[in-house]
């Protein structure tokens, strides 16, 4: 798998009036071909600063960034040819131009000839389902359509690495779904994609790997399936042949903070630290006629909440 982006020990300190803000505090990560990474974190965690540093829009305080072999600081034009970017708020499109003109314009700006740029523009317009919007200035399109235009513009020069900052922000279900499916297809064109979002369901649908940043530091960098498995281990659901959960309550008096009773489903959810503890709990509950023990696969939202809770 070829490496498309490497970020090493990136730091960014903003100075504003008398204040210094450590927005990014020494982060390192990589993006490879055919990989979609969800870059998650609370407001102000440092996501946009990182993305802007990769694009060369923010000058890092220290650290190294390498995009397909080039440095954003020393070789910005070469980096621009390899990178497709959607920044928050669609700033990479021209509002008076229609979809074809936008894509054509951005393709030519990245060095593609006029004839080829036109061809790409029509192809992408078709793929993005925007053919019937040709001739309409982008400012007159809906938010979802504008976002498709932005995606088209970011793909105009066939970049290898895509940085998408909140690509589905403010979009309805259908438009978000379209963008998600489109992004997934790009992975099979061997592109590498870094996507920031606060919509954890979107991250879960699209990502192979989860990168979580908090207060300028990476706290998680893991494959989504592995992350789910790790968190899965910590919770078990146990149901009984009867629905007398008071019996269960009495038996578990020693483990008061470890379980939640789920009366309508006749089951308990047990949170445990290690296999010894869960073995002990099961031994205690055995006489109450357990009918089923099953694990729960957490969704990304549950994982995120539990990481933040730590
Ligand atoms: N130009 C700037 N000057 C001063 N401080 C800044 C500047 N840009 C960002 N910051 C600060 O840097 C920190 C990180 O901001 P950043 O926009 O990178 O976070 P984020 O993770 O993208 O947040 P959000 O999810 O809200 O978009 C914040 O404390 C922010 O106020």
Automatic annotation (TrEMBL):
UniProt signal peptide: none
Alphabetical list of InterPro entries matching this protein: AAA+_ATPase, ABC_transporter-like_ATP-bd, ABC_transporter_ATP-binding, P-loop_NTPase
Organism expressing this protein natively: Marinitoga aeolica
Family the UniProt entry places it in: Belongs to the ABC transporter superfamily.
A GO molecular-function annotation: ATP binding
Keyword list, A-Z: ATP-binding, Nucleotide-binding, Transport
SUPFAM superfamilies for the chain: P-loop containing nucleoside triphosphate hydrolases
Pfam families named among the record's database cross-references: ABC_tran
Name of protein: ABC transporter ATP-binding protein
Domain of life: Bacteria
Residue span(s) of domain ABC transporter: 5-240
Entry keyword ATP-binding: yes
